[in-house]
Each structure stands twice: as structure tokens, then as C-alpha cells.
Model the fold of this input.
Amino acid sequence: MEWPPTARTEPMRMQARWTLALADRVLSRDTKRRLRLVQTAVGIMVTLSGVGGMQYAAWAGFAPWPTVLLWTAADLAGYVSFFVAIRSGWSERFADPSLTVAQMVFAVAICASAYVIAGPMRGAIFPVVMVTLMFGMFALAPRQMLAICAFAVLVFGALMAWMSHAQPAAFAPAVEWGHFLMLATMMPTVSLLAGRLSQLRQRLQRQKRELAEAVERIQFLATRDDLTGLINRRQMNELIEKELHRHTRNGSLFCVAMIDLDHFKRINDSHGHGAGDDVLRAFAQEGARLVRATDSFGRWGGEEFMLLMPDSALPAAREGVERIRRAAEEMAVRAGDAVLKLTLSAGVVEIVRGESIAHLTERADAALYRAKSYGRNTVVVG
Done:
């Protein structure tokens, strides 16, 4: 009889969860730290290939086993130490939490020591050195890369000179001179490539930054009013809709207020549209200063503004709008030689269960017009 699908797949799911848990424990859940650990783990894999080569050299009789085992222990201990330092967060006290420079200096030193003990197989060390330097090309600045390349040339050159003098039979001076010339020729090329990669990284970072700024600007333009900097009508509708959904789910109350500057047309006709813009900006700034942190204050259109007050009932909401009305009454906006005084009218309504956004704003608008009919400079509850 065939197992149910859940019974068949449960062991696989458990294994996947166990694997993910193990990966989180070894590589950390912190995204940046995890990336550093993965890079270090790749370096360890390259090191293991070098360890395998050295084991072969000892097995083939090219290198003494005790020396190779000691070299292997030092190599693995070094990289495990780097891994632990990054995983524990200890490395984050430094400017380079990945310890890239330290790892590369260690890798060059360990490769140089392998060159000395690998015997006839020492030429195989150079590809490992180049792969090691390739890791730094993607992370280090050109000056750092140049310093590491110079360090590699000096270390290998000194060891080649010393070994060709101490053991000329095993390290023929002509061969070592050829090895040194090859290494000294490759290193400047690596530095040039590192510089080119650094330029590409900087260009990509600049483009990424410019793209982020452009997206932020587009988002601002899509949700904000150009003149006042307040949220625009479209964004206000979206915020009211979210509050309406919250009200439907848990019955939380909210209020909206439609606010209109009294006799605003007179300001435009008497002092010009520039003065009208100054008045709108000044009132928007004052209104945004007076509302609660949880409220949303936006420009509805023209001289009309909308205030959304979450978790508010009518008495408290009306008092909040009254505070704005009194502040507007005390404002004085300078337009040229004239000082303009303001008043506002407002209609405040509370959400009713089952009500749509259109009906809610219609009730607020009707309350606003009642405030106008009562002589302006007043707040009316719908």
C-alpha cells in the first residue's frame, strides 16, 4: 500500500530542516557574516586542494612526511582560526571584518613554505598562489593588492635565493631564477587586473547608489505633493483604505477631517499665486508639526487638506483639528510687503461599519461645507 504523500515527504522535510539548521549554526543567520564565512570556506576548499597535493608529494617521496604533516596542521589551523574569528564576530572590530588582507598574507606565507618542502613538485605551487590572489582581486583596493603582490615577490624571491645558495643541487640557481622571473612578471599583471576590477566595483556601486536615489525620488514623487511636501491624495486614499481594512478586521475606530483654507481665492487674486503658494507651504508645515506621530496629514487638492487620525473617536479627533484651526488663526504669512492672516474650516467624521471610502470622504466634505455655511473659521462634526 502506498504511503500518504505527507508520510513520504516528511523524512525529506525533516532532513531539509536539519540541514538548514546546521547551515545556520555553522554559517550564522546574519547575512553579511554569512557571506564572509562562505568566502572563507571557499578559501579553505582551495587550501584543501593544496593539502592534497602536499600529501601526494610526501607519498611519492618528494617531501618528508613529518614536515608535510606539520605544514598541513599549520595550514588548517590558520584557516580554522580565521573561520572562528569571523563566525564569532570577533573580526567585526576591524575595518575589514572579512580579514581579507590577513588571510592573503597567511596564504602567501603558507604557499612559500610549501614551495620549500615540495621538492620537484614546487612548480605546482604557483597556480595555487595565483588562485589565492584572485580572491583578493574582488575584495581589495588596488593599493592593497599591489602591496600583497610585492610581499609575495619578496618572500618567494628571498626563499629562492636562500635555497639555491643552501641546496644548489635540489634548487638549481638557474631554475630558481626562472621561477622568480615568472613570478615577478605575473604579479604586476595581477595588480593591473585588481585595479581594473576595483574601478568596475566602484562604478557598479555608484550606479547602484544612483539607482537607489532615483527609485527613492520616484517614490517620493508618486506619494508626495510637490508644493507642500505632504502626502498626496493618492497616497492618502491608500492610507485610509488600510485603516478601513483594519477597522473591518478588529473594529478599531478612526476619523478623517477635511480642511479648507478660508477665502483662499482672495489671496491669489489680491497677492498673486506665488503668495498663495507661500501660504499653502506655511500652513502645511504648521499642520504637520501639530498632528500626532500616528496621524497622516496630506494635501487633498487646491487649498484642501485631509487629516487621517487612526485609533481616534470623534471627541478627541475634533479637538485635534481645533488645535490646528487655532494655530492657523494665529499664523501670519508675509507676502512682499503684506502680512496675510489665515482661517480654516473643517469637517470631521468617524468611520461607520460597512462604510466605503467614497462615502466617508463625502460625509467629511459635507461637514466641511456646513462649517463654511456657519460663517467659516470653525470645525463641524459630521
In short: The domain at 233-381 is CATH 3.30.70.270 (Alpha-Beta Plaits).
